[in-house]
Amino acid sequence: MGPEDNYIYDIHLKMRDNNVLLAYTGELDMKIIDALITSVKLKLKEVKYFPRVQKRVYGIMVECLEAIHSGYDITKKQNRKINPFSIFTLSCDKDYYYLISGRYIFNDNIEFQRAQIDKINALNIDGKKQLYREYVSDVTVKEYNTDLAMVDIAIKSNNTLTYEFRKVDDTTSFYIFQVKIKVN
Amino acid sequence: MQPLIVVATESTPHIIFDVTKNVFEMKGESRPENTKAFYDPVIDWVKKFCAQTLEQKNRTQKISFAIFFEYFSSSSAKYLMNIFARLEELHKNNIPVEVKWVFNDIDIEMQEAGEEFQKLLTLPFKFERVDH
Q: Phi and psi (nearest 5°) for B15?
């Protein structure tokens, strides 16, 4: 073991200090998503917060993971290749749960993603519920569409959805998406 | 009409739609890996059931669709709405039909989810709270 291996300890310290309940990095397929969901179900049972909050965290996590998966499905459908590695963490402090996800995105898809979130963030809770009703009433199936998932996340979290796009190169960026859920 | 019976998994609900027994139930968790593949046969069954029931016209036995979810994903919500929209057609044709929305007493989220569907439909909803 040499100093180059210190990164493991650094990761451990960061995870400990941020009270990370679960972290995953790698390619996300539905089997891994299922395993993460099962793991979070168990973790949430260990944390003695209100069942309503746990239910919200669980629901938001499912939607976030499916949204990441859906993002990669779209690129596959477009016959485009992108780095499939993602990151997902669930952490908490005394005030909030934090769900943070990260994935690669093509730069030409950024504006769509940004507009989708900004539209939701601009609404108050009644506006968000109205938008949810509009989306859920549209029973035509639109594959890989995440509009309903994003507004569902916003309603359940009752917080602004935050995001950032970090440019990787001329074609791709890393898309970081964060949701905060108050613990009570 | 053949009953539709689907065994529950960790991520998909138990379903039993049986016309002969007048039992219509969906229970459990709904976050299928492929929502379309899971729900397409369910929608097909409901579509045929509604067409057959509309043909009968003079049905007096109440149709009660019992929905008891612990969780359903947003993609499942669209399919549930599709099912309810079809049942609403029966209601509009004076066929006695309702959704019995069952939820655990501590599960306010699920109660609210049912109320959201109710707001979008004229189909009668009956809410039933059960001890968890």
A: -130, 135
* Number of domain units in chain A: 1
Query: Touching check for A106 and chain B: CB below 8 Å?
Result: no
Nearest by CB to B74, which of A34, A143, A148?
A: A148
Measured between beta carbons, the chain B residues lying within 8 angstroms of A141 are 36, 78
Strand-pair partners of A181: A97
Q: For residues A149 and A101, what is the distance between their CA atoms, to the nearest angstrom?
A: 15
Categorize the per-residue pLDDT at A141 as very low, low, confident or very high, splitting at 50, 70 and 90. Answer: low
CB-CB under 8 Å, A133 with B119:
yes
How far is Cα B38 from Cα B49, in angstroms, rounded to an integer? 18
What's the whole-model pTM score? 0.90
**To the nearest whole angstrom, how far is the Cα of A27 from the nearest Cα of chain B?**
16
Structural domain boundaries enclosing A61:
3-182
User: Could you tell me if A116 lies within 8 Å of chain B, comparing CB atoms?
Assistant: no
Q: For chain B, what are the domain ranges?
A: 64-132
Report, as an integer, the average pLDDT of B28-57: 93
Is A134's Cβ below 8 Å from some Cβ in B?
no
A42–chain B nearest CA distance, Å: 14
- What pLDDT digit, counting tens, does each position of A94-129 carry? 899 999 999 999 999 999 999 999 999 999 999 999
By Cβ distance, the residue of A34, A66, A141 closest to B73 is A66
Q: How far apart are CA A139 and CA B120, in angstroms?
A: 12
Residue B33, judged by CB atoms within 10 A of its CB (0-12, 13-18, 19+), counts as middle
For A173, the enclosing helix (H) or strand (E) is: strand A172-182
Dihedral of alpha carbons B35, B36, B42, B46, sign: positive
